Amino acid sequence: MGPQFLFATGIENSNPTIQNGTVRVDEMEKCGHYQHWQKDFDLVQELGICFLRYGPPIHTTWLAPGKYDWSFADLTFQDLLRRNIAPIVDLCHFGVPDWLGNFQNPDFPALFAQYAYDFAQRFPWVQLYTPVNEMFICAQFSGYYGWWNEQLKSDQGFVTALKHIVKANVLAMRAILKIRGNAIFIQSESSEYFHAENPAAIRPAEVMNARRFLSLDLNYGLRVNSQMYEYLLDNGMTRDEYHFFLGNNLKQHCIMGNDYYKTNEHRVSANGQTRAAGEIFGYHVITTQYHDRYRLPVMHTETNLWQGPNGDEAVNWLWKEWANVLRVRNDGVPIVGFTWYSLTDQVDWDTALRENNGNVNPLGLYDLDRNIRPVGQAYKQLIADWDHVLPTHSVCLQVPIVMPEESNRLWAKEQEQDIKEASADESTAQANEASAQ
């Protein structure tokens, strides 16, 4: 199958803990997905969508090292296969099982890699993965803001969470590639920008604008600047740990996913405090900054807005984001997909899941009664209008997406074998080059 544009939505599977680990915030449960999963997949198809950000609930699936309850995953993934919906599998979304503790646990990366390997072995037809969702945000909210999981408020807490989370992502990619040689990894990461409010705020804003890249720098093996290197080492990363990240060669398997919301831009004051800036630069400018840094194909992996009192606020935001996607593409950035996140309204997103209030937030393509919202109608029309226009013009991936129903076809198997052999040759060449130095 030739390259195609990835119009997507998602079914939110966040599951962080709050209140010192005593309360699990399970967004799938709050939004009724466990009861209505078949209906939810019906809605994905109604919209004309073939790609779904989706994953099993990690805290009820992964019971202990090497021990799993695959019952819900078997039901849902078998149904996605039957429907020929390609999941972008979200294996870790802001939480870990109780037995693992939290992201300060140094055993997490290796254990998670085994979980990813065992998932890929059970569902070998899956090609698209986001092993760990929003690595920067997960580390920030858990280790620096004190909101989730370990609920720490320190630079050391942040760096420790970050190094474990990104290492888990890297090891999971390696593990999945052993099973599925043509796997594609879509990093869903928040794209941030920090605006200096006055001249005295320029320095703290510069630090924050360097820090926002740390998760992807480490994930893609890009050297951080000297200030960030000192920051990492001062807060618990060792030189060996840093060199582990520099040794990565997985970038060729990756798409850089950028999440953009109105809350992604910040105003910085002279004392380093931040507050929401609203949309100033917008998706086009900020995504271009990220693409300039990493030079990878791009996907817009999350956005939404409340349906407000006029009823058209979310629709207008959808069109604004889509206009930004087209602008990025017309500027020569290889943008391969777009996502409204998520399929249904969310619960307690207004407090970033750190309070268990049960507030329904009207952010979805459908409400929680599974009735379509105006933005759902608009997205359905947008997909119908653009789906057959974009692929012929866009600079796309060298590796075609293999839809679930085609995963056992001879051409798909041959392609996977070719990629495995090419990757092995490249790894050998890199090893030889390193030993020669």
TrEMBL record:
**Segments passing through the bilayer:** none
Q: Does the keyword Aminoacyl-tRNA synthetase apply?
A: no
List the biased-composition ranges (Basic and acidic residues): 412-423
Residue spans with biased composition (Polar residues)?
Answer: 425-437
The record's Gene3D superfamilies line, in alphabetical order, gives: Glycosidases (3.20.20.80)
What superkingdom heads the lineage? Bacteria
Renumbered residue ranges of the record's region Disordered: 412-437
Biological process, per Gene Ontology: carbohydrate metabolic process
A Pfam entry, by short name: Glyco_hydro_1
Supply the InterPro entries for this chain.
GH, Glyco_hydro_1, Glycosyl_Hydrolase_39
In the record, what terms sit under GO molecular function? Answer: hydrolase activity, hydrolyzing O-glycosyl compounds
Q: Provide the alphabetized UniProt keywords.
A: Hydrolase
Write down what this protein is called. Answer: Glycosyl hydrolase family 1
Q: Which organism is it from?
A: Hymenobacter roseosalivarius DSM 11622
